[in-house]
Each structure stands twice: as structure tokens, then as C-alpha cells.
Amino acid sequence: MDPLLLGLIVALATVFVLFSGIPVAVGLLTVSALFLLAFDGLRSLSLMPEILFGKLNDFALLSIPMFIIMGAAISSTRAGADLYEALERWLTRVPGGLVVSNLGACALFAAMSGSSPATCAAIGKMGIPEMRRRGYPDGVAAGSIAAGGTLGILIPPSVTMIVYGIATETSIGRLFLAGVLPGVMLVGLFMAWSIFSTWRSGNMAVLGQRSYPWRARLEILPRVLPFLAIIAGVLYAMYGGVATPSETAAVGALLCVVIAVVIYRMWSIGAIWVVLRDSTRESVMILFIIGAAGVFSYMLSSLFITQSIAGWIAELEANRWVIMLCVNLFLLVAGFFLPPVAVILMAAPILMPIIEGAGFDPYWFAVVLTINMEIGLISPPVGLNLYVINGIAPDIPLGTILKGSLPFVACMVLGIVILALFPGLATWLPTLVMGAA
Is the pTM here over 0.85, yes or no? Predict the structure, then answer.
């Protein structure tokens, strides 16, 4: 059978299996086993366990459960509420200070926790009611938090970037640095739209109407500065050559648990057990997907599908930006239905030969891919963050939340366009800190 036709059949079968509702890892293993059995015989099935466990035999994978524990410890405390209160007190005199402080809190909490749903829940529980009470439009209140929560997979440390680095064999440290300036850019675009949308609503009074004394501003800092210090310390240790990403993740996780116990008095064994239980569950899920994706990649390569697609793209002699547009549309649609980790692990073996063949930087592409995944988090039909916001504020209709998030989707699309025009936004900082790739 022609490898391109076979690739189309594999794609359709994968979509059908994943849409059936079974776990992503099980679906990938099922599709891989069926096609290997059909075209390579029983011998190929004996290799599947070796490939699956071999994919997990990577020291870099240790950073995933460590960063997840780090985020879970933060999410289980009042850190989100304290971070929100601190930024509100310090930014209250900025025009649109409340929505700016909410987005800033989302960005910082997302960097600490690495979880979009956790960011939406932690910041939204306080931010959305307060914005609505002060007269901000419901769409701005809900949409800004939903969009701000997506920053967790872009701003380092990011589990999604770690997975991309493992799948593509690229430097995790460079990937973290590549996400910094684009992450700041997206925060700026989100803030600009929120302020403009509030100003356009005609209620100018809500853009700045509360003042805090210096004592109130200073007394909140001791509760949030330790967490920010951990982030700074983790990044310094990683890029200062002190430790590897896995080692810094382990130390960061331990320190976050210690701070949760000492500052937020999370003394009970039950509370610590919940953190470890939830972290283990999420880590095993991600690692199982990574192992299954390794088998899926082997199947694509064994059946010569990956090589044929890359060769077909090269023979098209199409403009590389047309190719990139098609890749973005594919990622966008995939992100509507599947979690970011699954999309990265499934698509990386197919897309990387195409991306590198077209002359695109893999670290720049990592940022573009991640922004596409962010769009999927606030777009139907899955749109996980939309449902989290709806759970926080059930009296805001889901349609209003969706309508409020669409301008932020446009901001992300604009961000991708800006990155295409100025790729140095993603590549300059890694080159400055770590030298040329």
C-alpha cells in the first residue's frame, strides 16, 4: 500500500479511536498494535513493550512529576488568593488596575503551578466576583481569567515544554527561555484588550477607583515572595549551570511543599497525601502517554509513513509559510479536541521533519505550537478552561464566557503573526543565555 494512503488511514483510525472516549495512551497503543500486526506481523508486537519502557528510560522525565508536585503544593494553598491580593494592592492605581492585576496574577500563578485549570480556579474564585462587583463586563471578567490560565503551558517552568523537548530531543532549558518573551507579549496583549474593552463599555469609573496604604501593600509580600523566589532560584540554578532541569525541579518541589507547610500551615497528613496522590495520578497519565506515543512513533516510522510525508512535502516546493499555515491549522483543530501533551507527542514525529526541512527553528516552532494549544484550552468543543470558569461563576452563561474569550483567541493569533514577523522574540533569549543552538 502507498505509504501516504496508509498514513491517511492511520490518521482516520486514530481520530476515530480517540473520539471513542478511551484514554489517549490506550488509544495510541491500540492503533499502533493493530497496524503493526496487519503490516509487520506478530514479530513487531514483541517489540512494543521494549519500545514503551525504553521511551520512559530517560532521566529528563523525572522533571515532570517534580514540577507537577511543585504546582500541586502551590494549588492546594491560598497562594493564588494571596498573589491576587498582592498584585491588586500594588497595581490599583494603574488604569484598569484590577483586570491587569488579575492577568498578572494568572501569569505568575501559571508559572508556579504549570496548570491552566488550577490557575483559572485559584485566581478566578476571587478575581471574577471582584471584577463583576466593581462593574467590569462579565465577558471581560470571565474571558480574561480563562485566557490568563492558558499561560501556564507557555511561561516556564512548563510541563508541556518538557514533553516537547523529550519528544523532539531538543534542549529543555532553551525551550523554557524561548517561552519567556512570547509569554510576556501575550500577557501584554491580554491586558491591552481588557483595558480597551472595559473603556469601550463606557464605565470609566471601574478602571481605577481604590487605593491601599503602603502598610497594606507591604504586609502581603511575605506570603508571596517565597514562591517567587523559588521560581527565580529554579531558573537561576538551571541556567547558571548549577543543576540539571530534573535536579532543580526536585529541589523546587521540596521547597514548595515546605513553604506550603510552614507558611500556609498545611500540617495534616491528609492534605499532604492529597498533593502526592493527585501529583502521582497526573504524572502517571502523562508518562503513560509518552510511552504510548513512543510506540506510535515507531509504528509510523516502521511503516515508512513519516518519511513519505516529509518527502511529499519537500516535493511540493510550496512556500514555507504556506506549509506553516497548514501546520498551524492542523494544530489548531487538534487542540480543539485533544490535550496539549497528546497533540505534541502524536504530531512531533510527523511535523519535525517538515519543520526542519522548511528551515524553521524548532525552538521558535515550540512556542507557536504551544500558543495553538493555548487556543484549544479556551475554544469549544472541549475548551477545558471555559468549563472551569463556568463552574466558578455558574450565573455567567457559557455563551457569555465563550464570547468573552474569543477576543483573547484573536490576541493569540496576533501573537503567532508577530512571532512569524519577529522570530527573535522566541530565539533571542536562548541564544543570549546559552549561545547558538
Answer: no
